[in-house]
Structure formats: structure tokens, C-alpha cells
Amino acid sequence: VKFVDVDTICKNATNPSFCSTLLNSKPGGGSGDLASLAEYTLSVVHTNVTNTMNQIKELIKQSGSNVAATTHYKGCLFNFGDLGALGAIGAAQDALKKRDYKFAHDDANQISFFMFLCISGNLPSDPPFHDTSLLPKYVDIVDQIAKIIVRILNYLI
């Protein structure tokens, strides 16, 4: 069982205060072993991904005849779904239960990759979509949480 201080985990994060607030929001505070902290953080990102998928479904409905918007949001929905971030989260949770921290780490890294695809498009030839919705903010939050999970798992590998 390994323990690392929250400040140590968060000191080089993209947004240290977001990282610290997230990890300290764990019931009982940010204390606890790294595996339980990773488990907690995976459950938080799972909730965020699920909620964001609901938002994306609404954006698809609202985009109506705007083909570019509909295509973008459907691509994001795919990247958030079972073959995307949601699947990677489930795989990371399973690997964590088996104490296979390397696989959990790799799966957590995949979450960030799927967030990148949502924003940039699935193909290099995809033109960037100027998204004025809150989706880019939600994607950024999921990405930050995924990177925090990777940081935690780095200590367990």
C-alpha cells in the first residue's frame, strides 16, 4: 500500500488547484492509499463523462440541420462512449481492481486521447469545428481529471 501527499501529486499538474480540490474532495479528504485515490478519481471522471454524453446528445438535437455541428457532436459522442472514454474508464477500473497499474495507467492515458479526438476531429483532415457551446470546457475538465489519474498511477507503476 503506497501513500503520496496530494500536494506532491498535484504540484506539476496543469492546474494544481483543480487537482488539489478534486483529490481533497474524496470522502475522508485526500488522504488514503494511492489505489483508493485512483479508484475515487476514476469514479469522478466516469460521472463527468456520463453527464457530458447527456449534454452532447442535447447538442446533437439542437444542431438541427447544421451538418458540421451534428457531425462534430456525433464524433464527440462516439469518443466519449463505450468504444471511447467510457470504455477506457471501465478498463482502467478493472485493471485497478486486479492491481495491474500499468494497464490502468495506459487506459487512463486513452481517456485524454479520446478528449483530443473530440476537439480536433477523428482524422487529421477534419476541419476544426468552432464550438461555442460549453462542450470544450467539459472536455477540458475530463482531460484534466484523466491526467490526474495518470499522475496517481505513475506512483503505483
What can you tell me about this protein's structure?
This protein is an all-alpha fold and 157 residues long. It has a single domain, classed as Butyryl-CoA Dehydrogenase, subunit A, domain 3. The chain is 71% helix and 0% strand. The protein contains 7 helices and no strands. The chain has helices at 6-10, 16-24, 34-63, 67-80, 85-97, 101-120, 135-154. It is elongated and about 55 Å long. The two termini are 12 Å apart. The relative contact order is 0.17.
Q: What percent of the residues sit in helical stretches (DSSP H or I)?
A: over 70%
Whole-number total of structural domains? 1
The CATH topology corresponds to: Butyryl-CoA Dehydrogenase, subunit A, domain 3
Low-pLDDT sequence parts: none
Rounded radius of gyration (Å): 16 Å
CATH superfamily: Invertase/pectin methylesterase inhibitor family protein
User: Treating each run of at least 4 consecutive H or I residues as one helix, how many helices?
Assistant: 7
Order of helices and strands: HHHHHHH
Our measurement of the CA-to-CA distance between the termini, rounded to an integer number of angstroms, reads 12 Å
CATH class: Mainly Alpha
Q: Please outline the major beta sheet.
A: none
Q: Just name the CATH architecture.
A: Up-down Bundle
Average pLDDT taken over every residue? 93
Main structural class: mainly alpha
Instruction: Tell how many strands the DSSP assignment holds.
Output: 0
Portion in strands: under 5%
Based on CA inertia axes, which overall geometry fits?
elongated
GO molecular function: pectinesterase inhibitor activity
Keywords: Disulfide bond, Signal
Domain Pectinesterase inhibitor: 1-152
Protein name: Pectinesterase inhibitor 2-like protein
